Structure formats: structure tokens, C-alpha cells
């Protein structure tokens, strides 16, 4: 083996843990991934994926002699040089992150005095590193290094983001440990930025908050466009050409969702509040984002002259295209608002499994977009699935009760939709 190839134990077989494990195996390291959910480990051991992520299945299959899966924490760390913590940190009612899963991994590592380093990838409040450091010291592991290594991959392109990152952030209060973890990334095509642990923890929360702010700012400009007759598309295209601002994350829509932006922006705000500081800008972002799907429902309600007794087709349930993930998806708020207004809701999504809890148990699921739109008074596009561009919209027009499409993702061409006889609404565009 190459001298810099190491043995890595990964705790957590979710999006982050599996992508990290598979990519490190691809780079030549030996990896054991441990999870507490037996069904996850069973699936992985028979070559199946518990989550949907493009390219991940191939990567795992290709590296299976260097990548194993286990329920046993002791087995995972037995031969490891480095342990990665990749468990989730869900929000608590106060908005603070729930760190109980991180702490149970740290507890499991207290016997592993042979480790060179513990690396935390989970998104945690600033100051967690210092607390974990103290816990490791108290357990007699002061010789084990600690690294805060936030993850910036986005779902749907996590494998390529991991292998070609904009940057790898390594937070460590000890240069030798920072070097060791940096060396694991040999072969990764992106700059490594080394800093102290608290700053590394802050980078993650601040970067996600700024991205959420940029989206929300765009959504507010889109609302202003609707009010004034401007068009958000040329406006954002021209703004994005300013290299100081850049073209990314300026797509107007129904608000950001997913497992990170909503949770991380609330966590950063909670951290500020806990320190006695009101993070007013972030509070505004969170409020405006909560309003965004409700504003769309309100526009639909006005257009349809009330929603009671109406049938609405929701196309797309996932929080964005390319994933089956419905965590904090705008579709959930939208479906439950529509039901509260007395509407009937028919849904379609190519991947997401809404399950049978509310609001989904009160909706019907359909195999094709056209089937979902049959008999509908309006269609609401919630997720920017590319399949929706290919829908035979003339056919959809024929099966709908009223030809109304609200395109919450600005996916379709307004002129073409009008040409087919639709009343077409979108977000901030001149139609
Ligand atoms: C996000 C970040 O992009 C990653 O860098 C970060 O690592 C990750 O969170 C995390 O903290 O783990 P992700 O949640 O997978 O990744 O999805 P994004 O592609 O960032 O989209 C987030 C939400 O913003 C989606 O609901 C998306 O539809 C929305 N969005 C995004 C917009 O409404 N407009 C845009 O222009 C961009």
C-alpha cells in the first residue's frame, strides 16, 4: 500500500458517511462504515443502497475490497488510524442541534486509545470541538488528535463534490494532526484550508446561512419583479455576471428546503440568541423563506377564486431534483395548506416516497404527471424535475379541468405554455 493510505472508521451510513467512505476507498484507503440501523447495514452488505445518490452505488461496488459495513463499533475502530463522525445532528425544539448521536460515537471511541485522530464531519455548533477535546482528555486520550472537517457536498452531486471540492476545511489546534488529515485527501482535486477548530465549525454554518440568504434575496427580488413588471430571469442573469456576486444560487422558487439550510440557519440563529445576540438578518431570511410557499398558495387561491372543492396536482415532492429526499421540502407545507383550504391533492414524483403520514395520507399518488393532472383545476410544479419539461403538455391541457399551471420553479417556457392555451404563472417572471 501507498505510505499515505490509512485505515479509516466512519460512524454513520447516511449521505455524508457513505459518500465519505466510498470516496476514501476510491482514493486507496481502507474503510469500515458503522451504523446503528441493522436494515442499513444489511442492505449495504448485499450491495444495495439505503439512500439515493447518483454514482455512489458504482463507487461502492468498485471498491468493495477496501470498504466494509458493520453494526459493531468496536470492530469498526479495532484497526483504524482515524475515526470520522458522520452522524446527523437534528434540530431540537429550541433550534439548537441535537448532539446526542455525536456524543454516543465519542463515548464508543473512548476505548480506542490507538487512534491517531478523531474527525467530526457532522454539522455542530461552534464550540463543540472544545467540548469533545475535553471529553477525550478526560478519558485519557489527550494524545489522540482532533479535527473539525465540515462537509460542503450537495445531495445529488455529492460524489463529484467530494472528489472535486471548492475547498476542504480542516480545523485543528495541532499542526501534526491537521497534516495527517490533509494527507488523506491526496488525490482530491481542490485546495485544503487549515484553521483552528472553532473557525472551521463557523465556516460551515456561515456558508450555508449565506447561501440561504442569497436564495431568499433572489426570491424577494422576484416578488418585487411581480409587483413592478420586471422579469427575474434577465435581472439575475445580469447580476450574476458581476464576478463579485456570481450566478449561482439565484434561482427564484418556492423557498429553500432540505436537510441543511433550514436546520443550519435556525441553528446559527439559536447560537446567536443563546449568546444574547439577535441575528436579525438571518431571522428575516428564515421568515421570508417560511412565507414563500404560502405566498404561492395565496396566488393560486386568488386565481382560482378559492381552493375549497378544487383539485390540485402537485408535480414533484422532493426538496430538489435529483434526490428522493423530502426533508423540509416545500411540498409538505404546500400539501398541508391545500388540504386545510379544502382542496383535493394529487401528486407525482419520480423518486420521493412520501409515506403514509399526514399530509400525504390524505393525498393520492400517481405514476405519471399526466395521470396526476387528470381532472385538476390547477397544476403546481414544486420540484424542477427535468422530466417535467418533456411532459406532453398538450395532452395535459386536454385532461385538466382548467388549464392553469403554476410553475414554482420557473422550469417551463411561458410563451410555449401560453401558446398551448394554459394560464401560466411562475415566480417573478413576466408571463
Ligand atoms: C446544501 C449546500 O449546497 C451544501 O454545500 C451543503 O454541504 C449541504 O447543504 C449541507 O449542509 O450538508 P443541499 O441541501 O443538498 O446542499 O442542496 P442545495 O442544492 O444547496 O439546495 C438547497 C435548497 O435550496 C433546495 O431546496 C433548492 O431547491 C434551493 N435552491 C437552491 C433555490 O431555491 N434556489 C437556488 O438558486 C439554489
The strand line-up of the biggest sheet is: 3-2-1-4-5-6
Reported CATH architecture of the largest domain: 3-Layer(aba) Sandwich
Class based on secondary structure composition and strand pairing: alpha/beta
Number of strands: 14
Q: State the distance separating the first and last CA atoms.
A: 61 Å
How many distinct domains? 2
Properties at a glance:
single chain; six-stranded parallel sheet; about 425 residues; 2 domains; Rossmann fold; alpha/beta; binds uridine-5'-diphosphate-glucuronic acid; 14 strands
Brief write-up:
The protein is of the alpha/beta class and 431 residues long. Helix content is 42%, strand content 13%.
Overall description:
The longest helix is centred in the middle third of the chain and has 32 residues, at 197-228. 42% of the residues lie in helices and 13% in strands. The chain has helices spanning 15-26, 38-45, 56-62, 73-78, 100-109, 128-138, 158-163, 175-184, 197-228, 232-240, 261-274, 280-304, 330-340, 369-373, 393-399, 414-419, and strands at 7-11, 30-34, 67-70, 82-85, 117-120, 145-148, 168-171, 192-195, 311-315, 344-348, 364-365, 378-381, 404-407, 423-426. It is elongated and about 70 Å long. It is of the alpha/beta class. The termini are far apart. The chain is built from 16 helices and 14 strands. It has 2 domains: 7-195, 3-Layer(aba) Sandwich (Rossmann fold), CATH 3.40.50.720; 261-426, Rossmann fold. Helix 15 (393-399) links the parallel strand 12 and strand 13. The structure holds uridine-5'-diphosphate-glucuronic acid. Uridine-5'-diphosphate-glucuronic acid (UGA) is lined by residues 151-155, 208, 211, 215, 249-251, 253, 256-258, 260-261, 264, 319-320. It catalyses: UDP-alpha-D-glucose + 2 NAD(+) + H2O = UDP-alpha-D-glucuronate + 2 NADH + 3 H(+). The active site is at residue 260. It is an enzyme of class 1 (oxidoreductase).
